[in-house]
Design brief:
Blueprint: H1 2-16, E1 39-42, E2 48-51, E3 58-60, H2 63-71, E4 78-79, H3 82-88, E5 99-100, H4 109-113, E6 119-123, H5 128-135, E7 140-143, H6 151-166, H7 169-192, E8 199-208, E9 211-216, H8 222-229, E10 233-234, E11 261-264, H9 281-285, H10 287-290, E12 294-296, H11 307-322
Parallel strand pairs: 3-4, 3-6, 4-5, 6-7, 8-10, 8-11, 11-12
Antiparallel strand pairs: 1-2, 8-9
C-alpha cells in the first residue's frame, strides 16, 4: 500500500508543477516574476538577499534545501553528498545532473565557485566562515534546519523562501495544499482504524562500541509533529534539543514507555541498530516488544525533509497501524 501511495503522491506532485493545475488560491496567469525582475528575499538571518531575477542555477548544501528545490521543479546544479541523498530521500529524487560538492558539513567552496551559480541555499547549521566564503562569489540564502517551537511552520517558511528566490511560489502553494490534503486523508484513515489518540514513539539509533544509542524524536521534532496532526500522540517523556526536538536514550530509557506503537527509521546502507537488541533482556521485556508493536518504517523517508517526505510519513504510519 505504501508504494502505491508514494507513486501516486509523486505523480500528483509532478502534476501540480504544471501551470494548468487547479488551486484553491488566487493564482494569476503568470505567478512567477519574469526573468528581468529583481527578486529580494529575507532569509533566516533577517538579511535581505537581492537577485537579478529568479535563480535558475542553484546549489544546496543541506538535504532539506535540496528536497525543497526538487519538489518545486528546480533541479539543483550541485548538491552535498549526492549518494547519501539518494539513500535517504526518496520523495524528491535527483536526476543524474547535479555535481557533488562534498559533505553537508563541509561543502567544497572551490567547486561551488566554478559552477556559475545564481544562488546557493544553505542552512543555519553551516558555519559563518563557510557562508562568508560562498558569498564572496555567489548570493546565499540561509534557511533554518528546523525549530522545535514550530517544526511544520519552519518547514514551510524555508520552502516559501526557496520558492521566492526561484520564482516558484505557485508550486509552493500547490505543495502546501497537497500537504493539507494528505493530513486530512491521514486523519480520516486513523479515525477509521479506531486509532485516534493512539500513542507512538518514533526514533532512530546508532551503534557505538557495541552499545545501541537511541535518538528519540520528542515533542518539537518534525515527524512526530506531523503524526500528531493526524490524531496520534507522541509518547516520549523527555525534552529534545531546541532546533530539532531530538533526545537521547538507551535501552534502559525505553522502560519509561507504555505499550505504544514503536516506530523507527533505519537504512540498509548503514544497517539496523535495533537488531543489536534482539537478545537484550530489557528489550525483550518491553510491553511494545511483547505485544508486537515494533515496526521499522520503509527506507529512504527523510526525517528532516519537506512536505513530500512528510506525506510519506503519514502513509507509513497509517500502513503500520493497519498491519
Amino acid at each position: 500500500m505504501r508504494t502505491t501511495r508514494v507513486i501516486i503522491g509523486l505523480s500528483l506532485a509532478a502534476a501540480l508543477f504544471a501551470a494548468g493545475c487547479g488551486t484553491t488560491e488566487e493564482v494569476g496567469a503568470d505567478p512567477a516574476p519574469s526573468s528581468g525582475d529583481p527578486v529580494t528575499v529575507v532569509d533566516s538571518r533577517g538579511q535581505e538577499v537581492t537577485l537579478d531575477g529568479p535563480a535558475e542555477r542553484v546549489a544546496a548544501t543541506e538535504w532539506n534545501g535540496v528536497e525543497h528545490l526538487v519538489s518545486l521543479g528546480v533541479m539543483p546544479v550541485a548538491v552535498s553528498d549526492v549518494e547519501g541523498y539518494g539513500q535517504w530521500v526518496s520523495a524528491a529524487p535527483l536526476d543524474d545532473t547535479p555535481t557533488d560538492i562534498g559533505t553537508r558539513g563541509e561543502p567544497s567552496i572551490d567547486t561551488l565557485g566554478t559552477l556559475n551559480l545564481d544562488l546557493v541555499v544553505v542552512t543555519d547549521s553551516l558555519n559563518e566562515g563557510a557562508i562568508a566564503q560562498i558569498e564572496a562569489t555567489t548570493p546565499v540564502i540561509v534557511i533554518a534546519g528546523s525549530t522545535a517551537a514550530d517544526p511544520i511552520g519552519s518547514m514551510f517558511e524555508s520552502l516559501d523562501m526557496v520558492a521566492a528566490a526561484t520564482g516558484t511560489e505557485y508550486e509552493a502553494a500547490q505543495l502546501r495544499a497537497g500537504f493539507d490534503e494528505k493530513i486530512a486523508e491521514g486523519t480520516a484513515a486513523v479515525a477509521e482504524l479506531g486509532a485516534a489518540g493512539d500513542q507512538f514513539a518514533f526514533s532512530d539509533a546508532y551503534v557505538d562500541s557495541g552499545t545501541v544509542s537511541i535518538r528519540p524524536f520528542t515533542d518539537g521534532a518534525l515527524v512526530p509533529e506531523v503524526l500528531e496532526q493526524i490524531g496520534l500522540e507522541n509518547a516520549w517523556p523527555m525534552e529534545g534539543d531546541p532546533a530539532f526536538g531530538l533526545g537521547q536514550a538507551d535501552v534502559e530509557g525505553l522502560t519509561e514507555l507504555p505499550d505504544v506503537h514503536f516506530w523507527y527509521m533505519a537504512n540498509d546502507t548503514l544497517g539496523d541498530p535495533y537488531e543489536e537488541l534482539a537478545d537484550n533482556a530489557i528489550w525483550q521485556s518491553l510491553p511494545f516488544v511483547t505485544s508486537g508493536k515494533v515496526q521499522r518504517f520503509p527506507d529512504s523517508l527523510w526525517m528532516f525533509g519537506g512536505p513530500l517526505s512528510m506525506a510519506q510519513y503519514v502513509d507509513a504510519a497509517v500502513d503500520a497501524i493497519e498491519e
